[in-house]
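Progress against Task 2.4 (sequence-to-structure conversion) is shown through the following example record, which the project officer requested during the mid-term review.
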Amino acid sequence: MPAKYSIKNYVENGYYHVYNRGVEKRLIFQDDQDYGVFLSYLKNYLSPKDEKELRSKLLETKISLKERDKIWQQIRMKNFNHEISLLAYCLMPNHFHFLIQQKTIDAIDKLMSSLSSRYARYFNQKYNRVGALFQGAYRAVSISNDAQFLHLSRYIHQQALQGDTQQGIQPSSYPEYLGIRNTIWIHPEEILTFFSKFNPSLSYENYVKEDEDFNSLEDLTLETPLQGATQQGVS
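Structure tokens generated for the chain above:
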């Protein structure tokens, strides 16, 4: 029998909790460079790409060969900006969480296939290892109502706040939700419409800081082993 969440029932314009962890619960992010590389790949895939403008730059006479090669790489790079909206994310030492809306029925599959394989190649080369980095295929759980939608965003950001980094918070979309950072490929606006910009008690920040019994929505979130990493970075 297939494992729970291994069969993914995708729909167009559906919302999903997408997550995965390292094989044998191993660390998939060992330093700041690893987090940065993973996020740079997400940026490549999800930022708007104007191919017409990129090709026009190739016609400039003063462009160097290095710049020309970089532009060609950008043109050839897969891009899912028109198919995927990333609403929230959190990167933990041995796993990650995404809240995603896909516009086409196979967009998540395409993004996750490209992202996972590309990052695994980087990681294996850096740490001189071979073999699978992630524990099988990613998991995806569909979101069916507003309560789940809001709860999941809070769950993801509460995970980030429980991290053990020097910055005191794991890499996540939480700064976008607090208005501290504006990132073109992160889309907090849909969730933030549920909250007040002016009343602190009704703000998103206050909502995230509230305690909640996660068991009431456990089918939406995670299998127990994926709960937040310990200080050593292992669930």
